[in-house]
Amino acid sequence: MISLLLAAALLTPSDAAYEAIKAKDGAARADLFQDAIEQNIRPELRDRLAPIVASIRYVENGKRYYYGIIHKRCPEGYRPQAGWCAATVQKSWDRWQKAGAKGEFLVFLSKRYCPVGADNDPNGLNKNWLPNLRKRLKRILK
Fold first, then answer.
1. Is residue 4 over pLDDT 50?
2. Which is deepest, 36, 43, 87, 121, by most CB within 10 Å?
3. Cβ–Cβ < 8 Å for 97, 16
4. What is the pTM of this model?
5. Euclidean distance between the first and the last CA atom of the chain, given in angstroms as a whole number
6. How would you label 7-26 residue by residue, b for 16+ Cβ within 10 Å and e otherwise?
7. Closest CA to 68 of 100, 110, 32, 37
């Protein structure tokens, strides 16, 4: 029991993200998640951004659009969804930095990833995305 607690305490944020995806989607999909992170997020930012990508998976909770990507150029399947999400988070980080990193990154990201008032949100659920993302991110990083 103590060794399990010690192992959990030693997880990097990127490892915690992997474990969160493994708990939700299983080991095979967690490996696809990890590949998406390695291919789309720069190494120096993985500990910061991988938990956000994992949190998006939980918040979107899609069965077909696992990470909420409904773009016509994104192929169906878990890995393309994870990759597109990871790339969007990395590109948004870069845009936020280029714009002077004003305000909180998650607010900046939410305006791009899940904007309130979007045409594809007829029930107005996007207003819940950012608070839910923050809650999930906190759970993954605890």
1. no
2. 36
3. no
4. 0.91
5. 18
6. eeeeeebbbbbbebbbeebe
7. 110
